[in-house]
Amino acid sequence: MAIKGAIPVSFAAVFPFGAFAKSVAPVADFEASKGGVKVQARDKVTGLPVWAVSVVDGDPDANESTVKVKVAADAEPVLPDTLPGLPFRPVEFEGLTVTAYLNQSTNRVAFSYRASGLRAPGGPLKSAIKTAAA
Questions:
Q1: Contact criterion met (CB below 8 Å) for 74 and 49
Q2: E-strand spans in 28-96?
Q3: Structural domains counted in the chain
Q4: pLDDT tens-digit profile of 69-86?
Q5: Could you tell me the pTM of the whole model?
Q6: Residue 19 lies in a domain
């Protein structure tokens, strides 16, 4: 049995200590961007624009403290509010998937994360991939 494509994972499996959003930025399509004009990447399945949400992994022993989770959405995802008195924005991702790949610059396996949406923990979904009605 071969695994093809992204592997669905639970938010708790990837971020057992939680995740804290820092920023959202459009993902550039490097092949389509030419002559100094940046073109935003589009999701291959839905055709929606892709956004990178930078998050801090709450795990104190995490190898990398900041990771990016890509979200395909019509508009820029809206981050949850900060915690009172702190700069942190707790966030949970819906429909989280992971894809392993070989990082050729380090010659190590790395992971790419995608999600269908995000929300404050326990809150309503803030952005999601719109799927065609069945």
A1: yes
A2: 50-57, 66-72, 89-94
A3: 1
A4: 999 999 999 999 888 887
A5: 0.83
A6: yes
